[in-house]
Amino acid sequence: MDFNFNEEQQMVYDSTKKFFEKETSGTLLRELMEDDKGYSPEVWKKMAELGWMGLLFKEEYGGFEGSFLDFALILEGMGKSAMPSPFLSTVILTGLIIQDNGSEELKKEYLPKIAEGECISTLAFLGRKGLYSKSELELEAKQVNGGYRISGAASFVPYAHVADNILCAAKTTDGKGVTLFMLDGKAPGIETINLHSISGKGVDCLVNFRDVQATPAQIVGEAGKGWEYIEAQWPKVAVALSCECVGGMDRVMELALNHVNERIQFGKPLSALQVVQHMCVDMAMKLETSRHTAHYAAWQINEGLDCTKEAAIAKSWCGEAFKVVTKIGHQLTGGIGFSKEFDLFLYTRNAKKLELLFGDGSFQRAIVADNIGL
Amino acid sequence: MDFKFTEEQVQFREEVKEFVTTEKEKGIFPFGNNCWMHLSSMEFSKEVAKKGLIGIAWPKEHGGRGMGYVDRVIMLEEMFRAGAPVAYHFMADRQVAPGIIHFGSDFLKKEFLSKIRNAEVCFCLLFSEPDAGSDLANCRTTAVEEGDYYIVNGQKVWTSNGHIADYGWALVKTNLDPAVSRYNAFSEMVIDMKSPGVTVRPLINSAGAHSFNEVYFDNVKVPKEYLVGTKDNGFRQIMTNLDFERAGIERLMQNSLTLDSLKDYVKTNDKGGKPLSQDPLIRDSIAKLEIEFEVGKLFIYYVASLLDKGKIPSYEAAMGKTFCTLYEAKLADVATTLMGLPGLLMPGSPEAPCNGMACEDYLWSPSYTLQGGVVEVLKNIVAQRGLKLGRKKK
Questions:
Q1: Which CATH number is B247-386 given?
Q2: Do A365 and B287 count as a contact with CB atoms less than 8 A apart?
Q3: How large is the ipTM?
């Protein structure tokens, strides 16, 4: 067993770190939170130039057939930087779903564009209650003249307002189940409304669909199997988000440790106080256990092993750990940590969001319970 | 990163599993929880020895198998999963032999290593004293040179298996000069527990079991060749050793039978015509335990992998032990609560689920976060050695 990075992984980790140190600034992150687009097109372009978007795609579709572990480390760097972008929704929630299930035509049309950074895409599959459940889906596709008309609403759709494409999950009226359609983001009948969420004004959207037309060629894979296709990506998404949590925790630790080492009270640094030291250790334990748990699940994915349980463990553990770490971070950094001048608030927000995205702790634990025969 | 076990490791795990299953099925050995502290069987340990499973991580030139620490964790994982009664050889294998190999003279190696490997001797650890718990350097037991001997006087306490041990592995004060730093005043030595002047008195723990003892030394003669390593260097030697003590999976799995029996209990008992295992809150509680267990296990393997790379995992081992014992302290609490009133039934009671295992464990559980370094001391180690906190500013 080797828990250390190999040379390539170390390179990916270091270069990602360097990239975000260069491209991220506190000012930019604060601007993006207020920005309508919610991401930086310049940074997005540079990320594409580094080959990140196509890392997991096959070479014939403009990809690099890279390792999921490398991908995981990039996500860790992203989490550490707190840089928002439509990366996951484009690469996994559209790209991988198409690569794994889509027709040759769809793959050829979209994957190279995504790999080039020329296509932002997202997945619309949640109802307004935001529940990860097939039965809560509010989009319906009616069959009309050999095509489809999609109507209804989807919510919590990241970056729908800037998306070139929206992959939408709709119940078909023939009762066959859920079907995925790859739509033009600006197709007639699509209306996007920005939600103001914990992570900013330009990230999540409510999307209304009014008789949006689709052809059978826009269906990804088989009609009626859409929900299964989404579920098949669940472990990858869960692990990717877990890695973001690890990166985020890493940064919060840095912020908090710097503070307790610098801040003098009662004539000595806060870090000389045992009670403060123990709080720091509690953070470190969350971080280190999360790191191994996330890497282990990422490794399982990379090896092609079934990791339903491991991914659920990672997401449940890392998601809750990140939140706890931000709470301890606040307690340690006091007033300055509660101000917008200090970067901690960026992570407090991300942590809460990452805790809930793609299933909170209890959602993941239900998966674990299923997998241990309960 | 590569989390794969080698072919040999996969095979080794199977071998151990098969061995443990066979021995358990014989029905003559006392399998159960807290097995490394409490369940001692020389006969079982001799079977372990025959199988070549004592000393697997010692170097070959000292009679070991030269296997790694990850291998050792694999072995212990399978033994603890079954609750194998390893107490007779456990301390000697884990701590005494590595200490002798690291620091001991050729005489000590010759005298003890093969006996330990063949499960012919049982060791106890003689560290804590009435005034030296977390503050181990406050030990007062003295060993004064007299001819070819040390004369030992004093008292040790919380000595697990002191009543069955043939030998003790002791920390004693050999430099009585008050001007000398207390960290340079101690030595490690082996003491024959049958020596005249050694008195062992049982201390019944709050769970009602006799696992600890008080050990008194009244002018006990210890031959000089039983001194381990360098005189007055004992404190440093012991600190190195403690990292090994803290690196093990025993801190995570001393109650693994309880988690299994809890899972069985909720699957086989109903509430309102539905198995308890379908109750969302019960499922969530058990999944929480399962997750912490898996997270802890991975961390233990991480620490073992550091040892295999030749690193001394001083703060990582402390972190692992903290995490794992906090989990252990919680396990029996959750298990008894989920079982409800039947969870309060003690071993031997009519109607006790899983023979009262959960209840008994609950009574043992306050000890987990104390033994081998309390959680708070371990956190100090992580903070100071790992996070480098509390150091003077340059």
A1: 1.20.140.10
A2: yes
A3: 0.94
